[in-house]
Amino acid sequence: MTRAATIAFGLALWWIATPALAQDTERGRELYDRWCAECHGTDGAGEGSAAAYMMPRPRDFTTGLYQIRTTANGELPTDADLVRVIEDGMPGTAMPGWESKFSDDEVRDLVAYIKDFSDFFELFGAPEPLEFGDRPGADAEALAEGRRLYEQIECWKCHGDRGRGDGPSAPTLQDDLDFPIRAADLSENWNFNGGGRVQDIYRRLRTGMDGTPMPSFSDLIDSGFMTDEQMWYLAAYVRSLSPPERPRVRDVIAARRVEGRVPAAADDSAWNAVPPYYVPLVGQIIEQPRWFAPGVDGLYIRALHDGATLALRVTWHDPSQSPDPDWLEWQGWVAETVQPAPEAEPTALLPDRLVVQFPTAIPTGRERPYFLMGDSRRPVYLWEWSSDAGAHEAWASGLGTRAPLDGGDLSAAAEWEAGAWTVVFQRPLAAADTATTLSFRSGVAIPIAFFAWDGSNGESGAQMAVSSWYSIYLEEPTPKTVYVSPVLAMLVTAGLGVLVVWRAQRREVEGSSQQ
Amino acid sequence: MTHVNRLRDYLRHPFWLAIALLVAAYIVFEFGVAYLPPLFGVRSAPIPDSVLLQYLITAAVGILIYVSDNEERWKRFKEPVGTLLVDPGLRWLRTALLVLVPLAVGWLTYSQVRPGVAAPVQLRSIHPAPPTSISFRGRTIRLTGLENPLRADGSIEEDYEVGKRVYYGNCLPCHGDLLDGNGHYAHGFNPPPLAFTDNGTIPQLTESFVFWRIAKGGPGLPTEGTPWNSAMPAWEPILTEDEIWAVTIFLYEQTGWTPRTWEHEGEAGAEGGHD
Amino acid sequence: MMNRERCLTTFLAFACALIVAAGCGGGGEAGGEEGAMEEEAGGVATAMDAKAATVDTATAATVSGTVSFTGTEPEAEAIDMSEEPNCAARYDMPKTTEEVVVGEGGGLANVFVYVKDGLSGMTFSVPSEGVVLDQAGCWYRPRVFGIQVGQDLVIKNSDGLLHNINAKAEQNRGFNISQPVEMETTRQFGVPEVMVRFECDVHGWMYAYVGVLEHPYYSVTGNDGSFSLDTLPPGTYTIEAWHERYGAQTQQVTVGANESAEVTFTFGDASA
After folding, report:
1. pLDDT tens digits for B185-239?
2. What is the mean pLDDT of residues C23-30?
3. In terms of domains, do A113 and A144 share one?
């Protein structure tokens, strides 16, 4: 074959083979435009129509910067990295997992198309994933070593001493597009963008999270400052800051009955007698002005009563003890970033607030007031607490209609420590004024809902975090009469049984004697 | 072989057949319903315990009717029971049952009457009866027989794009990118947001029904029924009529479902009338 | 199935590329730039050394001048370093932002002046000595500096407390590394870019800028606003002066053999 023929043959083959490659991105484009573009933008710049309603914002694909990788810091992600994020989604963000929607081929086409948004992929070719060592076992000693490293390499500067995202540097953190970004709350591993397992945390430490303030710590191993094993210990320690499992959401909060008086202090050991009930909160996106960047994402509730008083201990993570001047800049910044901007002036420091909502009376049927502060037909009764004005009772018949109630016997003690508020409410079970105020009764499920505001996050008014209705159930001491009916039922059953057997046997005897 | 024969003999006996049928029914209700359809790609969920009990009672009644239907069968059915009551060789079993059954009854009663922590049952119907007409921003819209006006004129592609914008600006946090009711805020709501991907939802509805649910939301649900406790807001103050129709188109286009049409309903009704 | 298809495609593409390359007798221009990008920066340096231009010092020219400031100097804001007492203690007076530093003679400091255009076709050897960016007293030193493509950037933490160095680049791959103790880390840049910004996310007030160039003709003005670009080959150049607040200005200048040319830039309220 002559050289010219060879070239011609090669070119022909090339020409045949090329459309197969091109097709990938074309199909990827169709999928992208249909399912991804509204957030990530048709041009991939992360500025789709829904982007302004999200914090953190959707990824800008044009920069080629990706948080969740297995490659070294500053490197591009591998195809497998992109596939993983598309299929599994990113917890703690608006990015869902698409595994149930897209086939493997479709995900591959999407990856091909997404890579097209940045020239870097073409310039650099396929990146090499980092070598990750095997995970060593982590005993108490290893966790202690992890804690020591956490202090020594100053993870707490952003993430805070207890990992609640309340470090001194947290209020100034920004991402690569200059949007505000929160230091991850390390005690909620179910919200970790790259996954909450020890190996996920280890990888984030090694690779960093490009485009965010989270740097890579690989140089510490390369420079001999720490070993790979120690990095694993650090990851195990960070994992240990969260509960073993994501807290399960239960419909009913049980208020256990205690002997003597209910505790008034947050650190009273009596609280340990009851498990915490987790209530997730989300942004109020129903009535205007809506709120897409809630600072509080969940509450831990413990409840006790002593037959005369109900005590409710509510704990939630909030990196700022508002009003806190250190967070003023953040307040305005969030306002600029998330739409619609908060109604309050970002120059005014806002307090943190919590509202516990009940119906005004225990419902007789199944009907409950509208969960968002009730309506004119069925108003609600509120326990309000704010970091600048303490606690008082209030009443509302719809969002924005709240009116404080005079007098009342509600008291509250609050403390903020290491990125968490704890508020202990106390109120006598019997209401002073039953027209506006709920009287608590044991032995029935009473509707309860929660609202929270993080002042430093610019939240006030309708811009808050909300829960839907749950129930609180004040346990009763088991009355002796409870045992009467089971005993009665046993006696009757046994008697009937004996009777049946006796009659059958008598008939049998009569039958045989007749024969 | 002998085992098989003996088993067959047992099953010929109405009493053991009845027991076997009841056990089979339990297995189907408890496990079959939940795990068999997914093998064929159909989504399913376990039957709640209370419903399971109802099904089992129904099955038991059916079996009883069958065995008592024929005098001979009924007699044979009762035989093992009679034997149990009188046979001297079965005295120990008899005594054990006389002790165990009352104990079990006692325990069941106790578990019923002891003070327990339980949420009141919150029933929910996905498809409440729609009104024949609603007032939308002061204008009366007759829902019965109403089709999506956007389908009559204009391009579906454009309406889809408008609807998409509306969906992503308003519905996304709860109903999700995949329209599976699993948006990033969905975990905060109980009852959970509706999954449009579910074949029991929008494919069973006319577009006018969907329009009504979007326009009036949870607060607009009929009061005569059970309280719905829906967190779905009324979108009437926020979205225009065209925007609601457009997002309706988006819901069907994006999920691939087709809405029920009134012609279809009319035919069904006409047929019913003729028969 | 799809994998096989892809393998086949890749193989064919590769085979064709080989054939074409063989056929053309090593023409391959298109891959040149990309190839250089992919290589380790060190490799780039050696490759350049081989054909690096040597400027004849006997005919070399100089472009020098000053950057002056007009208008009212913006008031420097004091930085609150209270969250980092070790750093705060190093300063008698609270450190100020130093965004605009004007010398006594009216010169504007921290302006990056460099040859933007006029050297195309020439390549220059990469200095073996690295450029040091030190973090001392929770401050980047220097604040504005230049570096050549492929030259070592030695990032140094003299504070012994946590800094992260978040390099925000557009043409280059950025990076974000942590230095929680006294240590040094070396990085390089692969392509020219004016400027790459460094930020420390731990200390929101810390930032620095580096101009990455393929040649050594850059200078950063001191407090007197003066700069000098020496040992230039005679020619016509576009000189750009870049300031973090006031942006960039360019001027054309022509210098003959052994000539010196003066260029003056003026920044201030009017130019902003």
Report:
1. 999 988 889 999 988 888 888 999 999 999 988 777 776 555 567 788 889 999 9
2. 39
3. no
CB contact under 8 A, C9 and A17: yes
Please tell me what DSSP assigns to residue A355: E
In a domain, C226, yes or no: yes
Whether residue C38 and residue A124 make contact (CB cut-off 8 A), yes or no, is yes
Name chain A contacts of C167, Cβ cutoff 8 Å.
74
A400's CB contacts (< 8 A; 6+ apart) are A373, A461, A462
Determine the structural domain holding residue A174 and report its residue range: 140-240
In the chain, the amino acid numbered C154 is V
The answer on B190 and B69 residing in a single domain is: no
Residues of C within 8 A of A16 (CB-CB) are 12
Q: What span, in angstroms and rounded, lies between the C-alpha atoms of B154 and B141?
A: 21
A334-354, pLDDT tens digit by residue? 888 887 777 777 778 999 999
Residue-wise pLDDT tens digits, B71-102: 888 888 888 888 888 888 888 988 898 899 99
Q: Is residue B104 located within the same domain as residue B23?
A: yes
In the DSSP assignment, the letter for residue A276 is P
How high is the pLDDT of residue A138?
Answer: 80
Out of A96, A476, A487, closest to residue B176 by CB: A96
Which value does ipTM take for this structure? 0.85
- Does C35 map to a domain? no
Indicate whether B141 belongs to any domain: yes
Q: Which of B78, B117, B121 to substitute to test the interface with A, most A CBs within 10 Å?
A: B117
| Overall number of domains in chain B | 2
Q: How many domains in chain A?
A: 4
Q: How confident is the model at residue B118 (pLDDT cuts 50, 70, 90)?
A: low
Q: DSSP letters along C214-248, please?
A: SSS-EEE--TT-EEEEEEEPSEEEEEEEEETTTEE
pLDDT-wise least confident of A353-367, B105-119, B216-230 = B216-230
Cross-chain residue pair A498–B106, CB shorter than 8 Å = no
Tell me the two tokens of residue A263. 């505790």
Query: How high is the mean pLDDT of chain A?
Result: 90
Tell me if A17 and C180 make a contact (CB, 8 A cut-off).
no
Looking at the structure, do residues A229 and A289 belong to the same domain, yes or no? no
Range of the domain at B147: 133-271
A216 CB neighbours in chain C (<8 A) are: 175-178
CATH of residue A32: 1.10.760.10
Stated pTM of the model: 0.81
- Nearest Cα neighbor of A354 from A399, A317, A323, A385 is A385
- Which member of C34, C178, C183 has the closest CB to residue A216? C178
Beta strand A380-386 pairing with A353-359: antiparallel
